[in-house]
Amino acid sequence: MDPLVDGWGRRIESVRISVTDKCNFRCTYCMPAEGLEWLRRDEILSFEEITRLARILAALGVGEVRLTGGEPLVRRDVPALVGMLAEIPGIDDLSLTTNGILLRRYAQSLVDAGLRRINVSLDSLDHVRFAEITRRDALDQVLEGLAEAERFPELRPIKVNCVAIKNFTEPEVPALAALARRKPYVVRFIEFMPLDADRAWSADQVLTGAEIRALVEAEHGPLVELPAKASSTAQRYAFADGAGELGFVNPVSEPFCSTCDRIRITADGQLRTCLFSRREWDVKSVLRNGSDDAQIAAFLRHAVRHKELKHRVNEPGFVPASRSMSQIGG
Ligand code: SAM
Ligand code: SF4
User: Is the pTM of this model over 0.85?
Assistant: First the structure.
């Protein structure tokens, strides 16, 4: 079958699928402290619908699937979904992004189901500051979750994601860099994007990858750049002595839209061709209206042809997306 290609000639090979809009954290850069309305059960794609969609996408060359949310592990039986997706021919990279609080409980069943890669969010190694940013006192559970994931050598790499915020993250950098050196975790700093429900983002709150790299290099000396896949969101760096890897995801200061190969499916079955899309494509209706696989594939091709050339975060008049990160699926 012809590959999935957007209107600008980029091949689409990766999908992030949100399995729930709910979360047991309330990170300040993502969710409001309270007041979000949850989707109803019947609005959310079933595991069978997600699996069918993933199978059609895999046949179109989308071999990378990442489950996300909200917090994916709050949805009941997510390991069962992992098992269903792991069996699909053509899916060769199946991963999950989690805040880690339930990872200790689920790591074994996720690995048994076929998960081979995991991303865990962690913004601070200090209990008070962790609670300040996530609005939950759960650092110990997250670290226990990471330790549990580490027990499974088949679950690699373990990536630890930190959202980098000016005047918050700077003091966290030494401890997070040390974590990357001490543990088999790739620690990645992700620039704060205007996807927070509180709409409090401003450009001067972005701590750039270059700024963090300078902080690390001031302590450890020059980092060594490692090769990365062309479509990778992260620039990869090793410490000069070879112990530890850092990643920098710089969507604001160094946009990587020209090599973007991603689409997203929200928990309520809307296809988004960009994190910052103003428009969504109602795949759920197509999945539920009796369409056959070929018709669904045609719908996906049509939507993908309209993928945005680039985000416009840095341009005057930028309009934030209609939904925030936890509702889209990061
Ligand atoms: N709840 C899971 C977690 O936190 O890992 C998965 C969903 S979360 C929306 C996915 C990723 O998006 C996390 O790494 C989170 O830190 C990141 N994220 C959330 N809001 C963001 C923002 N405004 N800017 C940059 N990254 C953000
Ligand atoms: Fe929840 Fe993840 Fe958003 Fe934090 S970043 S509020 S853990 S969805």
Answer: yes
